[in-house]
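Budget justification aside, the reviewers requested a transparent look at the raw inputs and outputs of the sequence design task funded under Objective 1. We therefore reproduce one unedited record. The lines immediately below are the structure tokens for a 232-residue chain.
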């Protein structure tokens, strides 16, 4: 395990923290699309959960790296077992998947932070309509209609590539040492992310079309894509 990997894991955790922290509080009276399934309404809660899990993974990756310099088994066998209870020799390392995952998370974080800045006070994690609402079509919104969800998808894909593949603490020492368990978590996480993105994109489009009918129709013709230009 290298210092480069540990440093990138921490950078990834910080980037994810910024991208998943609400830039503005939600005012309940301004919410819409509250009739969707509860499991799809708890995106802010899921963000908090996956931020916590990511920091736990980063913490244990740092501890494991430190243990390669100091023999914890001779100092404290219990601590060594907690850090890596695996009976086989773990191989936490840099890998192509890990590198791609880091790039995806940093890019996804940048896109989301840019969306926060572009929308300003209009951006909330729950779907809301503000008194001063307007249709924003600049920056990443000139390429796709829902770039913040593009960023979220890149975050999920990047975190999965970094932590749910071989070579991570989570799969070498942590609770997902079984490859099948990592695949199940990855699949469930991705399905939920897509379901939330599609549900919210449809609701936001309907709301914006209702508020700004002519302006929205022109915008939808120019920018027909939800998340990725030419794909979806």
């Amino acid at each position: 395990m290298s210092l480069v990997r540990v440093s990138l894991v921490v950078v990834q955790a910080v980037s994810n923290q910024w991208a998943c922290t609400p830039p503005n509080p939600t005012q309940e009276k301004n919410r819409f699309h509250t009739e969707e399934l509860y499991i799809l309404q708890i995106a802010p809660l899921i963000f908090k959960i996956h931020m916590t899990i990511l920091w736990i993974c980063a913490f244990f990756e740092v501890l494991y790296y430190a243990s390669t310099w100091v023999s914890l088994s001779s100092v404290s066998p219990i601590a060594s077992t907690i850090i890596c209870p695996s009976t086989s020799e773990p191989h936490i390392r840099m890998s192509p998947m890990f590198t791609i995952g880091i790039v995806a998370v940093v890019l996804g974080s940048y896109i989301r932070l840019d969306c926060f800045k572009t929308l300003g006070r209009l951006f909330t994690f729950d779907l809301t309509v503000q008194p001063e609402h307007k249709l924003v079509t600049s920056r990443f919104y000139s390429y796709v209609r829902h770039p913040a969800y593009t960023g979220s998808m890149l975050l999920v894909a990047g975190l999965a590539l970094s932590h749910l593949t071989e070579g991570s603490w989570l799969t070498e020492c942590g609770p997902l040492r079984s490859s099948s368990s990592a695949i199940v978590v990855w699949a469930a996480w991705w399905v939920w992310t897509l379901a939330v993105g599609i549900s919210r994109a449809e609701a936001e489009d309907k709301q914006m079309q209702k508020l700004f009918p002519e302006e929205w129709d022109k915008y939808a013709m120019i920018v027909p894509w939800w998340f990725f230009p030419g794909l979806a």
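The chain has a mean pLDDT of 89. The two ends are 38 Å apart (CA to CA). Computational costs for records of this kind are itemized in the attached budget.
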